[in-house]
Queue: 4 jobs
Job 1
Amino acid sequence: MQPHFQESESTHMVRQTVRDFAEKQIRPHVMEWDEAQTFPRPLFHQLGELGLMGVLVPEAYGGSGLGYLEYVAAIEELAQVCGSIGLSMAAHNSLCTGHILQFGSEEQKMRWLPKLASGEHLGAWGLTEANTGSDALRMQCVAKREGDDWVINGAKNWITHGISGDIAVVLARTGDLGDSHGISAFVVERGTPGFSGGKKENKLGMRASETAEMIFQDCRIHDSQRLGDVGDGFIQAMKVLDGGRISIAALSLGIAKGAYKAAVQYSKEREQFGQAIANFQAIAFKLADMATRIEAAELLTLQAADMKNRGKKMTKESAMAKYYASEASVFCSNEAVQIFGGYGYTKDFPVEKFYRDCKLCTIGEGTSEIQKLVISRSVLNA
Ligand SMILES: Cc1cc2nc3c(=O)[nH]c(=O)nc-3n(C[C@H](O)[C@H](O)[C@H](O)COP(=O)(O)OP(=O)(O)OC[C@H]3O[C@@H](n4cnc5c(N)ncnc54)[C@H](O)[C@@H]3O)c2cc1C
């Protein structure tokens, strides 16, 4: 299943390269990593060699200098094989690296982007806290100014690469609680005294992507590690999420396609009542619904990606893509398990893992309910 309009040569090349890589380097290990919750850090060095750790980073900072259409294709291909790897690659590229790329000074970009883009450094991005997920504005983590330094205290939860990340972009309160201009963004390097990884979550799905707490105890960093102006952090984070949500839409799309392809094949092979189950309209109509939602999700995702490439404001479009594609992914994975029957409920077939992994897509980078808030605000204010 491919888009029906012409992909650029560059997007096609990225898709093929990632597809081959995923087949050879990821597929043989998928269930082993999932069962043991192994985060395969060395794989991200290989992804770096392929240019996938700095997809959107200009070549001047050591990146691939590609756009969102190539980025979407890469995540989608990874997710068709392993959602966890797609998720980690997306968090590294569009959250941590993307934040520095969008809001870092020239000096800051030269300092951090080359190692992130090569995969030598892994990125993390900390907005969420234990008591403030959707309501991130009310975060408790605080950064206090002391001369030329900032001292950070607090914790961030649910952070992709919270333990293994080498470079973390951290959002901390520098003003009043609940003030959208009371939050600033900082880059904290692993090894800084007072910065440590905390509890690793034991998750339903996306188990090979590390999700963990980041703890800050009197963590002192220099003011040169502040991204943008004091008080701009929350507004920056919302803009970073506009781009990030396109990557979650791509992740959703990849999982949905993976589940759909497996279901199509199985429905032609599995026989009951003396014929392939695909001959039963009940099964064929499931496939029709899956295919339709996948194509609709793809169109929304590519629209948001194209707008992002052209520098257009796409808050509504990326929220629509993320909302629709993630719900489509849950729908398709659920139907795929149903089509596989009892076999779909075992770890011997890939649909069981798609079914567990896809649920993250309706939660991370803003739940479906929050996407509907974003979309409805935009519609009502138009
Ligand atoms: C695997 C994984 C990886 C993650 N990676 C990162 C990361 O790298 N960095 C990071 O900062 N965060 C990360 N997160 C956190 C993620 O973004 C949050 O989990 C998400 O934003 C939801 O927050 P919450 O879990 O606190 O849920 P809550 O905000 O407590 O929401 C609970 C329920 O209430 C609903 N709800 C809340 N407010 C409203 C409202 N106003 N209107 C209607 N319904 C509402 C929600 O939709 C949801 O159904 C990750 C999460 C997971 C699971």
Job 2
Amino acid sequence: MNWPKELKVRVNYPLKNKTTFRIGGPAQFFSEPKDIPELKLLLELSRKKKLPVYILGAGSNLLISDKGVRGLVIQLGALRFKDIARENGFIRAGSAVLLGRLIRFAQGESLQGLEFLAGIPGTLGGALAMNAGCWGHNIGDLVKEAQVLGKDGRLRTLSAKQIRFAYRKSSLADYIILSARLKAKKGSQAGIKKNINKYLTARRLTQDLTWPNAGCIFKNPRNKSAGSLIDLCGLKGRNIGGAFISQRHANFILNKKKASSGDVLRLMRLIKKQVSNKFNLILHPEIKIWP
Ligand SMILES: Cc1cc2nc3c(=O)[nH]c(=O)nc-3n(C[C@H](O)[C@H](O)[C@H](O)COP(=O)(O)OP(=O)(O)OC[C@H]3O[C@@H](n4cnc5c(N)ncnc54)[C@H](O)[C@@H]3O)c2cc1C
């Protein structure tokens, strides 16, 4: 399959190290467009070639099959998508901005309200697509508007009212998110720093960061913690192949010994079955599984 040279489309491109799980085979095609016209062209050609398109952020919420992904994987890694600026009382940031950088920027500008995102290892685009959150806050609450590209190649600016956010779900996931304008309040740098440290400490105490992982594997059922339910099934430490349920946080699966995607999927099935048998509850994955 031929692509215009300027698009720099790579063939059979390894994705494993593009994910925090360190699992997965290659993308049939992979590209990092340098700007919006290139991105549009990639979409148009994929449509013509009938290729599925996947958007990759920092790969921190993904399980990719060892067989890889048929189609085109696009990562918005270019500088054009990493802009960040203060605009009146708001922060405008590109979708490839890492949340850590976003928080540091807000702190430098004495803008508060984003600190709860500290320690989430994703990009702004991934966070908006997932409505990422923690400690009772979700990023969707901060959105004033988002600039997106439709699968039809149309650029749109969506106001908060035009976007639906729910628990780890957002209608923005139907688009390619390019940038967003986020609300923030005036605060003191010292107060913001204190909040960030508070959240990072709480995270260190509860999460397991010793081995590659993708954060929480399952969504919490209403008013319940998926981690506690898995723990109550006595599954902490259980493994299939190289995939282990964390001893510290039962909703984390760790890639300890070169786990395959199949190891993780089998372990997920085992968890679902045991939780369903014991509590009559169905767990739904929070992570995205490609393809
Ligand atoms: C140690 C650890 C801790 C975590 N803690 C939390 C937490 O506290 N709260 C939480 O909510 N999550 C948490 N996560 C999960 C993850 O970090 C978040 O969901 C994050 O927002 C995903 O961002 P990403 O850039 O890595 O997205 P990816 O994993 O690359 O992609 C996730 C989804 O978003 C889509 N996507 C990515 N970028 C775009 C874009 N520009 N446009 C459209 N769609 C896009 C992808 O197609 C995919 O469907 C954690 C993960 C880890 C590894």
Job 3
Amino acid sequence: MTEQHSSAASGSPFDDLAATVQVAEPLASHTWLGVGGAAEYFCEPISVESLAAIVSRCHEQSIKLRVVGGGSNILASSDGVAAMVVSLAAPAFCGITIEGQTVRVGAGAKLVHLVSETVQAGLSGLEDLVGIPGTVGGGLVGNAAAHGSNLGQRVHSVTVMLPDGSTEERVREDIAFASGWSSLDGVIVLAARFELDSDDPGRLTKRMQKQWIVERSEQPSGTRAVAMMFKDPVGTTAESLISQAGCRDLCVGGASVYATHANYVVAEAGCPSSDVKELLEKVRGVVRERLGVELSPRIRVW
Ligand SMILES: Cc1cc2nc3c(=O)[nH]c(=O)nc-3n(C[C@H](O)[C@H](O)[C@H](O)COP(=O)(O)OP(=O)(O)OC[C@H]3O[C@@H](n4cnc5c(N)ncnc54)[C@H](O)[C@@H]3O)c2cc1C
């Protein structure tokens, strides 16, 4: 592990807080790719107060803080991650409540649960996003998108935690959403409120099921050790550019391009994160050289 904080050896800087903190928690089991070393510190806080205590301690002691959602868009370094990694998987962060056309959801809730609950309640606006893995928090930070819809479109407001542990509400007008990006990067997303439209639950369910089938047919099957490599450039898809550039068969060590859906990387068990990183650079370089297009990485490298 790089840049270890010296206090780890003599007890963690979080010992006096009412939170369970793991030291040297393997991150492979928290990410889809299943590669990578350990997080220096890891915590699943059970309440906002407990999270705030962790966050402000990190701020005071200059310990880097990262959030893992579903881990479907993270490549963790095999050298380890010198940071406190928090997961908002506890029930306090995963609730979904629906009142009329207003939906309040915790950042740790799975996006697929949010979509299916809103569809069952006869609310439209999120059904196109049904097959996207991960959490609402991760989806908001990266503005998850599919079939012409994106998560940011239906946001009314987002509750965030700042580095000092305080919370604030950000309304839609104060948040920028773009392709594969939002201005929520850099804060902790705690919860969001969406305003949706009323529709017929039967019709919505059919539409959701159709999108689910389409989305699954566009994803690698038979393995979970995958990640989406690049964002789609305006007017085209990363997959078509990668194919046109002849990168479908590229591999580096245990990491290879998934030939059928070429914007995915697949990692073999035990593959070092550097193989995945090198493969991404290789694909990017070939696309640049042959097609003159600069692909922008989607996956977050830790
Ligand atoms: C098979 C497959 C299919 C995919 N299909 C799509 C698709 O159709 N469309 C699409 O847009 N993406 C797709 N993705 C990419 C990925 O699923 C999305 O980007 C997803 O929204 C990531 O959510 P997550 O919870 O897994 O985030 P993570 O991978 O856990 O994290 C991603 C980033 O968000 C940050 N983050 C997570 N939660 C929070 C929080 N609460 N507060 C602050 N920061 C947070 C993390 O720190 C990290 O920087 C796909 C990925 C895979 C593997």
Job 4
Amino acid sequence: MKNMIVLCVSFLTLQAYEYHLKPVELAKDVYCFFGAPENISKENGGNMVNTCFVQTKEGFVVIDSGPTFSYASQAYNEMQKIAKLPVKYVINTHDHDDHWLGNNFYKSKGALLIGPRTYEQNVVTGMETRMQRALGKAIYGKTKIVELDTIVDSNLTLKVSDKTFEIKQMVDKAHTEGDLIVYMASEQIVFAGDVVFNDRLSSLRDGSIIGSLKALDLIDDLHAKVIVGGHGYATDANATQGFKSYLSKMKKQILEALENDVGIDEITKHVVMLEYKDMKLYDVLHSRNVFEAFRELEMYEEESTEEQGIEYIDFTKALKKQKKKIRLL
Ligand SMILES: [Zn+2]
């Protein structure tokens, strides 16, 4: 009996984590898997991220490969139920590991990996990842870091039979130093990576509040019908608005606090933004975001007091004027 239990337990630990991935069709030939709007945990297996795939006549193009080898392998099985086609390319939107740790699965299937310069700079083969620490060996399984085949330095247009993918690099640091977005003009779809968040707060730890607002404006200027963020379920033309509004309000309140000589020790008590307190991850991320934004904005000079009251829709104009004055720490 005891041996049976030991056998059952070891059998269970050998089983891959079951992600129960279900693709959602957002337009003809365009599908995404939506992760839970929460932090990484053993319970969710790192499935707190959105990944997408587009079917072309030649094969699939994947946008972000997800948190583990087995996530990517299960995503691939779902794709094969739609069409028995290979995965030709995987585009990584940025260097945070919830978005690309499925790369080695796709590489083993012959896909070409495309990603930002920051992947090459920050991702070192053999290093321990945040996901590895959080998930442990059993869920992390066969996940391995692999090198990219193509680095996108500015913009790249990828034509795969009947579909065109415009891969655009954000000019300034936004969510990270090297965010890529993928735009399909004829389908009016943008895969925005973590430049767009919904249904939970984002983290400014590697990013910039000014750059994020600017990138959100650039995405809105594309007038896409479908905007898929790296996290959260909203995908309509207004999917940028919630995050834009959060950052705009934070910017305004921090600048006001700076005018009133509020220091870094006090800032998180002044910019609480209680209207967001029920948003997922508010408790974990909000104060830290305020702190990071404060450090950036104390180096930022508004051109005139008139602009203090400007809402986010006017920021593009304001930022153009102020571009030279923006300095980041
Ligand atoms: Zn992410």
